[in-house]
Write a structure and sequence with these properties.
- The complex is a heterodimer of chains A (about 400) and B (about 130).
- In chain A, a hairpin with a 5-residue loop joins strand 6 (about 85-90) and strand 7 (about 100-110).
- Chain A contains 10 helices and 20 strands.
- Chain A has about 400 residues and is α+β, with helices and mostly antiparallel strands.
- Chain A has helices at about 10-15, 35-45, 65-75, 120-135, 170-175, 220-230, 240-250, 270, 290-295, 370; strands spanning about 5, 20-25, 30, 50-55, 55-60, 85-90, 100-110, 110-115, 145-150, 160-165, 190-195, 195-200, 210-215, 235-240, 300-310, 320-325, 325-340, 340-350, 360, 390-395.
- In chain A, strands 11-12-13-10-4-14 form a 6-stranded mixed sheet, sandwiched between helices. In chain A, strands 15-18-17-16-19-20 form a 6-stranded antiparallel beta barrel.
- In chain A, helix 5 packs across helix 6.
- Chain B is an alpha+beta fold.
- Chain B has one domain (about 5-110): RNA polymerase II/Efflux pump adaptor protein, barrel-sandwich hybrid domain (OB fold (Dihydrolipoamide Acetyltransferase, E2P), Beta Barrel).
- In chain B, a hairpin with a 2-residue loop joins strand 2 (about 15-20) and strand 3.
- The chains are: A alpha+beta (about 400), B alpha+beta (about 130).
- At the A-B interface, loops of A face helix 1, strand 4 and strand 6 of B.
């Protein structure tokens, strides 16, 4: 394994937090938290938080067939977009496995920006390259180019800084004088001001109603970070780490690649609750045949659960069993403590994914000692188990 | 600041030794790495332990971490307060955040532990 890389904001993290809180994540050194996960979570719900997302993959797809290319590799319908609009979508293999979940931004005619997960950056680049070389699902005469927009030698290079929470629009207004509060979700604007060349989009991964991602030149990222924190200080804008990013997205019900998408249970977009982003009526896209079958036939799906929590309660963890009447009906995929409850995303039998359905959780062994005491380190659906802690199914997504 | 008269392990436990009694806890480095601690599985009284046996499990929202016994001995007192107030381990790991007291069965093992100065040097290397 190669040494993790430092983002352009690494020095900021080192200034703001101790070394024990900076950990390798998806190949990058990232801060887990600055103050505490709880304080940062709460800031995004009440005021606003700023996140280093400069590790995320940002690609540019340009050329007269850029839209054709994206329509072939991605599941959502590109022709629904127009300049200034963005769209959530999936990249699938021909056998229907998810390569990544992405957001496609329509920058201008024949010019798109694609934002992908940091952990999948190389995989996505390799896949786009293979599609081009082997002409998978594309026409050999199509003209398009794929450019890594994080390359700071490019004049239009871009990295992602997220500003999320109710005060975020006001913070942007104070900083750049633009009113982004009226932007619709998944819409964006481009501005040039104070030496910055920015894309400000109303997107995010926290579930916050008012939330933005700001795409900035990597060499200007530190300046933007400092400026937003300075202008946002009176508004309660604070820097937030990976810990709250995870607890916020879990609370909101948003999937993470490798947990609620793909991963150990090879979860499809349909199981995750995102079938709408796979346009099966589209003429063609890579993986369409398998996706069509997946859409018609699945017994388990992602549910959001609320479980007893707070101090003194053993936290539930990935792969713990979900039970009804002592029978295992699924598995925990992700979980987070939020105030005094635990919110989990779990893969459960579809017939039980109903609001207010009561469930139990079985704790897997946390160490060798537990295994010696007879606790299991793996459970399967159908197994009979004892309930350790109780909870219930709640709405698939939380609105804030 | 590390308590100077305590002994330390590479896994970031501390032992305060008074005759044949050792009080055990986790260090400031350990509590900091774990983040907000929400649950502690405490040892049962009268439990016999060898050095490096699992003594407790400390859990934060991000991880479940085993705490190992620095020394062999028998547990005779447990800090039950931690069950309802696990935050004591974050806020006061060297005093109110103690985990348990053991009666040491192999006093010679103390020489395997680090002194405060040695632990401080160890922390600088990691």
């Amino acid at each position: 394994m190669t040494e993790a890389k430092k983002t352009v904001l690494f020095e900021k993290h080192a200034e703001l937090t101790g070394k024990a809180q900076i950990v390798p994540f998806a190949g990058w050194f990232m801060p887990l938290w600055y103050q505490s996960i709880a304080a940062e979570h709460s800031a995004v719900r009440k005021t606003a938080g700023i996140f280093d997302c400069t590790h995320m993959a940002v690609l540019k797809v340009v050329g007269k067939d850029a839209a054709n290319f994206l329509n072939a590799v991605a599941t959502n319908e590109i022709s629904m977009l127009s300049p200034g609009k963005a769209q959530y979508s999936y990249l699938l293999t021909p056998t229907g496995d998810i390569i990544d979940d992405i957001i496609v931004y329509y920058i201008d005619v024949d010019n798109f920006m694609v934002v992908a997960n940091a952990s999948n950056e190389q995989k996505v680049k390799d896949w786009f390259n293979k599609v081009g070389v082997d002409k998978i699902g594309i026409d050999k005469n199509w003209q398009y180019k794929i450019i890594d927009l994080k390359d700071s030698s490019l004049p239009d290079a871009k990295v992602d800084i997220a500003l999320q929470g109710p005060a975020s629009a006001e913070c942007i207004k104070k900083t750049f004088g633009v009113d982004v509060g009226t932007l619709k979700p998944l819409n964006f604007i481009q501005i040039r001001d104070k030496g910055f060349d920015l894309i400000i989009s109303r997107t995010g991964y926290t579930g916050a109603k008012i939330s933005f991602e700001i795409f900035v030149h990597p060499l200007k990222a530190v300046e933007l970070w400092d400026l937003l924190l300075e202008k946002g200080k009176d508004l309660g804008v604070i820097p937030c780490g990976l810990g709250s990013r995870d607890s916020l997205r879990i609370e909101a019900g948003l999937p993470l690649y490798g947990h609620e998408l793909a991963g150990d249970f090879n979860i499809s977009p349909f199981q995750a609750g995102y079938g709408w982003a796979v346009k099966l009526n589209k003429k063609n896209f890579i993986g369409k045949d398998v996706a069509t079958k997946q859409s018609q036939n699945f017994d388990t799906e992602v549910a959001r659960l609320k479980i007893i929590g707070g101090k003194g309660i053993r936290p539930i963890r990935q792969f713990d069993g979900i039970l009804i009447d002592g029978r295992c009906i699924g598995y925990v995929l992700s979980c987070a403590g939020v105030n005094d409850v635990q919110i989990a995303l779990a893969l459960i039998e579809k017939k039980y994914n109903n609001n207010e359905q009561q469930i139990g959780v079985y704790y897997l062994a946390r160490n060798q000692g537990h295994i010696q005491q007879g606790r299991k380190d793996k459970v399967v659906i159908g197994e009979k188990l004892d309930t350790d802690i109780k909870g219930s199914v709640v709405e698939r997504f939380e609105k804030f | 600041m590390l308590p100077q008269n305590f002994y330390y392990t590479k896994d970031h436990e501390w032992a305060a030794i008074d005759g044949d009694i050792a009080t055990i806890g986790i260090t400031d480095y350990a509590q900091h790495s774990l983040g907000e601690i929400t649950y502690i599985e405490l040892p049962s009284a009268k439990k016999h332990l060898k050095a490096h046996d699992i003594l407790a499990v400390v859990e934060s929202s991000k991880a479940a971490s085993d705490v190992y016994s620095p020394l062999a001995g028998t547990v005779f007192a447990v800090n039950d307060e931690l069950s309802s107030r696990p935050e004591l381990m974050n806020n006061d790991c060297y005093n109110d955040g103690w985990i348990c007291k053991i009666k040491i069965s192999s006093p010679a093992e103390v020489k395997n532990l680090m002194t405060a100065a040695q632990y401080e040097a160890y922390l600088k290397k990691i």
